[in-house]
Structures are given as C-alpha cells and as structure tokens.
Amino acid sequence: MKNGRIAGTGSYVPETIWKNEDLEKMVETSDAWIRERTGIGARHIAGEETVAQMAVKAARRALENAGICSTELDLILVGTSSSESIFPNTACLVQDEIGAFRAACLDVSAACTGFLAVYELGQLYIRSGKAKNVLLIGADALSRLADWHDRGTCILFGDGAGAIVLTAEEQETKACERSIRWRKGVSLTCEKGTYLQMDGRAVFQFALSRVPEVIREVLAEADMAVEEIDAFILHQANSRIIDGVAKRLKAPKEKFPRNIEAYGNTCAASIPILLDEWNRSGRAQKGQRIVLSGFGAGLIWGAAYLEW
Predict the structure, then answer these.
(1) Which of 70, 220, 224, 248 counts the most CB atoms within 10 A of its CB?
(2) Which of 92, 105, 112, 176 is labelled catalytic?
(3) For this structure, is 235 an active site residue?
C-alpha cells in the first residue's frame, strides 16, 4: 500500500518580533505572568506580509529540501483560518507564485487543527492513487484577529507558515490518522469583522481531555504503544497543555519537543514549523515513530501516526 512519506520540510516566520516586554507597553501584563501561564516569551508579527506570501516562502523551502520541482506537484493543500483573500484561495495564490500549474488547489479552514486536516487529506489522495506529490502548508496570521487590548488572548498568538512535501511510497509500516473530530462549542470563536474570543479555562480543559484520548486511539489503530513513540509533535498552544498531555499519557516531557517560547501559538502553522525545526536540526531520523496532534477552535481535534 502506498502512503505519503515526508520528503521535505520548510518554514517561514516574519522578521518582526514582539517580546513579552513589548506587550507590557500595550496591555496590563508582564513577562513573568505570560511565561508562567503559557511558556511564551516572544512571537513573530506579519506586518504587511500576507498569509499567502508566508505560505509561498515556506513552500519553496520545503520543495528545495525535498529536491522536488514545483511542476511535479499534483496537489496543494493549505490549512488557514486567516487568509486575507476569500477567493482566489491561498493554495491557488501559492500555485501561481511557485509555478505549480499541474497541481489542484484547496484551502481547509480548521483553525489550529488545520495542518492535521490537510495532512489527512493529502494521505487520502496518495492512497487513492490520485496524487503522487502533495504540498501541505499551514499558514496563519492570527495577530490580525487578536484584540491587542485583551491580555487573555493577545499574548498567545504569533504569525508564520510551515510546509511539508508528501511523496507516494510503498510502505510496509502503517501510517494512520484519526479523522478530525468536531464538537460544537463557544470556547474559541471568531466571526467576520470581529476579534477572536476565547474562554481559556474551557479550552485548556478540552485539550487535556481530548488530546490524550485521540492519541491513544490513533496508536491503537497503528498497533503501537505510547512507550514506542520517539516524538509527540503537538500543536503549540500552551506549554502547560503540552506538559499535561505528557502527564496523562505517562510519557516523558523530553518526547514532546516545543518551540512555543520563541513563536507563540501560530495556529495551523505550529506543527509544520516544529517539524521543519525537528528535521533541519538533525533530530529527525529515518524510522522514527512520530505522533502529530492538533486541537483548537471549533472545537476541533485530531491525531496522526507516521514513521519518518
């Protein structure tokens, strides 16, 4: 059976950095208060850069890393909830910029679970035989949706984009995903023309409950145990959530890499940015068993098991 192998990774974050000390001048908060509650020390802010422009830069780096030409792509999938353009969608804008004119293009709006959604879709296209090379991107600029007078939300979010290239490959090992779940909720919402609204406590409790649950489900499907996993790449929403998931899974924190201190919550971009760092730092090794898990607004959550 053919599955999609990660052939290359790429990421991009804007040059402008707002540290916690910068936010002290904007809203009643402090570096110590933010770090204690979230683990965040800084975030990158897009300024005039569009979501599509960030996505293009991450995509080019992923293609270069994979050694694949844009004309070899069959499909471009972008997870985003903050694109400036309603249509053409972000995937089409990426296609045009990188010259991937053979590729079909589709955006998916699933908030912080957006990258998991496009990852599952990309795998399904490959398994069906309809695609061989798939470009997956998570890109968001939630700084534009945050109320910078609301210290409960504005401290959390940063901007960026991450991308991977999936290439069809015959695999004896099992790669699987738990389909994206949805539960009606008002804990984290954002309507057009408004700022995002969040009940932090409710989101925290939701993540601690649902993320370990869906990880166990995907591992059961893959016939794997928690102890056999080399790394859990979780959405970077809050360092305390990551610690809580590790505790509930009875897994060492060292297996949960994180970069939230430097980037904050980059929504759909957080998992692919972390994957790119994992890859380029040399920590990614062939055969490693990895779990991905995303969770956020909707409420939406999901997980995937793969071997590098």
Answers:
(1) 70
(2) 112
(3) yes
